[in-house]
Amino acid sequence: MKQNSSSAPVIDFDTPALRMHRKIRSYKDKAAEVGVGVGGISVIVAILLIFLYLMYEVVPLFKSASVEPIAEYQVPKTTVAPDNAKTLYLAVEEQGEVAMRITNVGEVIFFNVADGQVVKREQLVLPQGVDLVSVASEGPGSAILALGLSNGTALIVRDRYRVTYPGDKRLITPSVEYPFGSEPMVISESGGLIEKLAVNNAEQNLLVSAVTNDKKAHLVQFAKEESLFGDEITLVRSEITLPVLDSKVHSILIAPDQRWMYLASQQGQVDVVDLRDPDNAKLNARLKVTEKNSAIADVKFQLGGISLLVGDMTGAVSQWFLVRDDQSEWALKKIRSFEHDSSPVVVMLPEHRRKGFLMIDAKGELDIFSTTAHRTMLTENILEIQPRIATISPRADVLLIERVDGVVQTFAVHNEHPEVSWSALWQKVWYESYEEPQYTWQSSASTNDFEPKFSLMPLAFGTLKAAFYAMIVATPLAIGGAIFTAYFMAPAMRRKIKPIIELMEALPTVILGFLAGLFLAPFVEHNLPGIFALLILLPIGMVAFGFAWAQMPDKVRHAVPDGWQAALMIPVVLLVSWFALGMSQPMEAMFFDSDMRSWLSNDLGIPFDQRNALVVGLAMGFAVIPTIFSITEDAIFAVPKHLSYGSLALGATPWQTLTRVVLPTASPGIFSAVMIGMGRAVGETMIVLMATGNTPIMDANIFEGMRTLAANIAVEVPESEVGSSHYRILFLAAFVLFTFTFVVNTAAEVIRQRLRKKYGAL
Amino acid sequence: MRESFGSWTRTGSPWVWLNAGAVAISVVMVIGLLALIAVRGLGHFWPASIIEADVRAADGSLHHITGELTDSLTVPAEQVRASGVAIPADQETVTRYLVKIGNRDVYGTDFRWVLKDQIENADYPEALMAVERREWGNFYGYLISVKQDGQVIAQQAVGENSIWPEFEKRIARALTIHEEIYQIEKHEIGRINYAMERLRLKQRSLELKGKDTPQAITEIQTERRVLDAEYKVLQQKLGDLYVEANRDSFVAQAMDGQQIEVSVSKVVRAFQPNMMHLGNKIVFYGEKLWEFMTDEPREANTEGGIFPAIFGTVMMVLLMSVMVTPFGVIAAVYLREYAKQGFVTRMIRIAVNNLAGVPSIVYGVFGLGFFVYFLGGHIDDLFFPEALPAPTFGTPGLMWASITLALLTVPVVIVATEEGLARIPRSVREGSLALGATKAETLWRVVLPMASPAMMTGVILAVARAAGEVAPLMLVGVVKLAPSLPLDGNYPFIHLDQKFMHLGFHIYDVGFQSPNVEAARPLVYATALLLVIVIALLNMSAVAIRNHLREKYKSLEM
């Protein structure tokens, strides 16, 4: 033996190199700790990021509008009679750069919105000695103007703006066109000053209506006839006799479908004229549209020409449209009125692209309203001096006002999402042409003047309906199965069952959805009586088999070890299913005139879709079963065994032990399982997308489909324009889903954590 | 009776049996579903016999029909009677067959329902052939003649089979030419187009930076001329090949006696199933299966293979696992090894649970808004201004799809890794620390290696989840038909900005958006089967690894 103790090499642990090495190791350790910490926290960051980003997209929906002044300048003067010329009409073009002023001396001035610089002057082609008296626009979003002249004729013009980019800079060249020639059309054969007029240019006919200074109302139809070569249109004139009118007309409006015409008198009455039969124009109704006998201040069509927007001298603002009742009779009804104080309305400006309007009153206050959402976007005093005439650009972003003192003020308007309000999303809304207020989701259509219908109610209803039917299918099967697996089943069998359930959980929902849509839906439709028979026969068959099994001789019964009853049940289930489905057609022939589907719809009046809630319930139930099953099974299995042993030792049957001891202990866990299952059913997309017709209806009928929030997002997000109201509402739908599942999952998790603590104590 | 029903009920036994039944129903549903997909999916590739029969219509006239019987349905006789077809009064049910008659170019539809009772003189003549074509679906009928440049080379009467070898020879020739054309169009011209596009972007980029000197422009012009010249040569070659390909045609007689001439270049494969014996059929089956797995889709995805979808899914899943693994593992390590068990860990656990429970479509919406439009839009502004206004990363694509799915699957990895870490006994860690290792060293050298199978389990489960997830992908990157694979020979080889095809989306798209659902259905079943097999295998391997791990640490704890 050597003497190690004395001759052992002395190792110096404090060399600079080793110190360095230790330092590096310690740094690495610290770095790892920080890195791992950041990684852990980033999970919370991720969930917060989702939450905040969804919020960030949703919040602009509920912002109000705002205006800011751009410029203020003297109105550009005409060359003829510069001090006496009056503005008859104002307009701003698409880009918000150039404005147009039509004056009563027949001169059209195009000027810059920003500074009032004249861009171009144009003299209208008027016959010698004839004056321009009145101007009327066809309606919001149209460039067609009718000019009323002093000899009973009218001229149709259109403003055009050609945009070019010389040297990469935008140049707008305005001009006035005469789509039907520069020859004025005769409206009143007896002549007279045309004081008020209206025009509507449809594919077949051009309608012009006018009231002359002798209080006569005229309506003239010009039928368009193409010449032989199709390159020229000739107008064939015919006069339509209007029902007698006796009051002073404030405005005339012709609806775009040329079926209805409205004559508003200054006293606040509106005559609704039915033009369906041009040879026999009928007065549909005459009714008061203003409050407290006040006079009309302004009346305009809303975009689309269905609604009338009425503002009166007492400051009341309201929307009216024709509603058809049960007898197919049309009646003009007041749909909603808008909040405003009592100062008289001066001008109403309907937007060109959306269902909304601006209103300016006598004290210079601007109000921006959205009709569908019934929302006041803005109330702000913007003028010191009373306005005379105003206009809004087609994009509703530039407002141009001429005051009574001849000064023009321009404003930039920011009003991004007027279509949305809480009431429009969650309450009934009376949409244009609907008979009554309704919940409707219809986000887009092919026409420009479409009123988007953004009610989330049908979608929320559809979501809950789908989840409800899925839970009806899934909960009993999953909980029952979990109880048996956790409490009664033999361990050997349990080891085989659990992977099957895990596989069930892993099945992609796109496969379940595809089978539901292409296999299950036609199968259910074809075997409808059999499916219902199955629901009744399966439990009966199981209990009957159980009872029969109890009557078997011991030898047979003991051949199957305890806890293997589920295996015995498999043939029973198969047999009963085969029997029930085999019975389907004989039953259909016997009870339902061989066609249960038509029996349902004809005899019971229940509509039937092939892809319906029953199919969704079965398919989505299948998807939810494993979620509920696993968590329930864990909860029941985790109940300490000594509790059930004690109960069994006291003489309780296994079932009694289960219901009185085990289930109460595990109930919070089962509850959280159901919650999580519910969360999954609510958010499931592919199954509902494929197994329903995706029609947003509100009907609890099991034989009809639905559209859920999730499916709606999947269908509509790809085609919605980024940043539009529609896009943001879809984000709102996602946000609703997110919050719902967040609440459900957090609650379930908290319950589970409590449960774990409780078992720890036992 | 051993026991009265009343006393049997009082013990609660019926409830036990009902619970047992619930398990049985669940099992039957799973197995039944798998069996259904397997049978329908695998059956598709088997060469079905072609039936020739006469069908007696309601007015007594006879129609000749040829085609494959694809489905049958039994309906109550009353329903059929209601539609005006006379059925004997004593008959209660009627069987209907769905016959695939093919020849969509001639009849407008591929399928026809025929009542069993109306079929007369059913026969399976050996000379009947089925021709798979590149357009208009299958053709069924008799081969009459083969033509070259419009001149009849060989002909035969209906029912004979003498010119079949000649026909097959010409198909083989056309297929070779087609393959050549495909190579040129897809790869060589594709490469030139890609290079041209890069040149355009280069020029634009120089312009934006103000470096578009005449010299640089000339260089680009020269390169462009070289490419143009190459392109012209290829174009010439293609023209010649097309002329060659269209040389041959064949005439065949359809079921109503019409004779139809079809160019041989349109033929994918021709066969005579009624003549095949079992061995031939098995070989044919193998060929079709191979085609399905390796070929590109034809005819709006209703025919051909699904290779691009398989490839896209694999690419996406690989990228996703590269991203999800570190993130998930670090989070799990934090929860188990570093964090003090308290409020913060409780919050993280709740966050993990919520990430797992948030509907997948919400991830899609988030991915589209945040990743694609927000991040992608900024990346484009910063790094790819030359391509604007066409977006590079500001549009759904492979990278964003992978990141979105990584976020979606991260809880799976966290939960699995955490379980693995929890199973490693304390003693192992303490041993390492006692020997002087730092915490990071213990983690890196001892704990993580031991937990690696658990991480593997987590990643496999995440992959299985991602492979089957469709809803978010619909928003962030999949398309029904991608013109090229996201991995190819053109620099930079992996195209993260490209859109891709995906098995799950393929199922949805072909099954529900296809114009000819009936024809596409078998293919959808086959695709579904493939997806199920992949996912089942992934899951089973994950479970196996997990169980193995459990066993291993059980012995360690002893």
TrEMBL record, chain A:
Any one cellular-component term (Gene Ontology): plasma membrane
Annotated ABC transmembrane type-1 domain residues: 460-748
Tagged with keyword Lipoprotein: no
UniProt-annotated location(s): Cell membrane
Membrane topology of this protein: Multi-pass membrane protein
The keyword Electron transport belongs to this UniProt entry's keyword annotation: no
Transmembrane segments: 31-56, 466-488, 500-524, 530-550, 562-581, 613-640, 661-682, 729-748
Gene Ontology annotations of biological process type: transmembrane transport
InterPro entries noted in UniProt: MetI-like (IPR000515), MetI-like_sf (IPR035906), WD40/YVTN_repeat-like_dom_sf (IPR015943)
Source organism, top-level taxon: Bacteria
Protein name listed in UniProt: Phosphate ABC transporter permease
